[in-house]
Write the structure tokens for this entry.
Amino acid sequence: MGIIEKNNIREMQLSNLIVNPTRSQTTKHKQIIHQVYSQKELKFIVTELATDETVPHWFYNFVVIMANTGLRDQEMAALDINNSVNLKEQYLQIDKAITGVKGQRKRLGPTKNGVHRRVYFNNIVKETIIDQIKVIKRLMAKHADYGWQETPNSEKLYFLFAHGNGLPFAVPYLGRRWTTAIADHPDIPKYSLYSLRHTYATLMYKKTQDAPTVAKSLGHTVATFLRYYVDALDEDQKQLSNIDLIILDDD
């Protein structure tokens, strides 16, 4: 008892005995969770949202474009019709994103990793963008002060997706819109809005096997792309069971 009473170790806190991992170690061991829709599921989602009267038309357009380009939600929110969209050459110029901290005003900032890039799109996206621009132009004609300026002296921007007065959407709002849109559809897996980016990456890689090109479109290195954005779908894994690696004799 005398030894215990004079033992300073008993006064030490458990936290003093545990060495906290560095940020790099935490990242290294962080579990990577992929939420990826199959192509069949993605087609089903688009069909369901197109016929759901509770889903605003602009949000349906938002989903179609995000799913077909793999843009981040904050990059989608920063698309403006004059600076981001090139319909003739069919690409989106991605060099900014909507950022903001809770309780503070929204602002334009760099993309998540600061990479500027062109993201080319197909004819489905082209027609969807044209349709959405018509929506914006009707609002511009209706409201004389429509649009958004980050500062009084900055250029007035007309976002492809915005509130009725032209103010940019906050990313959490778009996420809630997605959650609400799929909530009443029991056959749609309840993944996050960001999963559309992972889905684009996985399906594009599956079809092309061209990691460098898909990674560049996403604004990533090949290593980052393969680590965080490519996931084997269940339907692909099932195909492994049909491959005979060892042929056994009939007898």
